[in-house]
């Protein structure tokens, strides 16, 4: 069977280039694709991708109110971490320093601008949910301290990891693999296409709610392998902070919006399910490639 157009590596690169230029430094305003043909191609890829994902979950029973949503959503969080448990145990207890460094550097390739995604998530929100998104964004900004901005902390960690890989002559893939591109592209896609904001809410909830278990595994693995604190700090920080974000996102954003309408509730649920599928495929691939290369 031919690979769907949206799943071609070159096609996902088209999306990544568009998203990174759109959210790039304003000084590079002249490189943002804005021709009708360019935008038509982006929409073609995005629409085909969503059509595929929607068909994949068409038989799922979706929650229709806050009470149903809470239990359903909690189950998805637990299931995602259970499905990648073997990889997390490997990172925590078995992975070599180079394997952990390889994983961190692969994450950096597709980490994207999560702080910008969080900024876009605030647009149009006119209730108390906006305060939770704003607080989450301010945490991403290091609460006003430049060296504590999460992107800067992650850069510090990945810099050490890249140096470690150089020391053992281990290289990252020349091209970013498709599952990694899709994992990075999805939330930026939804942040920029305003009709998908409820899906973005669901996806961010899954990201924040499931993240502490992954960060704890990486932190413990780094400690076991003797990584310096400047390489560990970003990951250690997120064990605690994402646990808070995950709870606040559920209680202050997802559940209040689930009260708004059945349609909104189910659209957020679709965001959870699609993000679940993309993330699970990504972590399966990362598990495979880390073990093969390290």
TrEMBL record:
<dbReference type="Pfam" id="PF14518">
    <property type="entry name" value="Haem_oxygenas_2"/>
</dbReference>
<dbReference type="InterPro" id="IPR016084">
    <property type="entry name" value="Haem_Oase-like_multi-hlx"/>
</dbReference>
<protein>
    <recommendedName>
        <fullName>Iron-containing redox enzyme family protein</fullName>
    </recommendedName>
</protein>
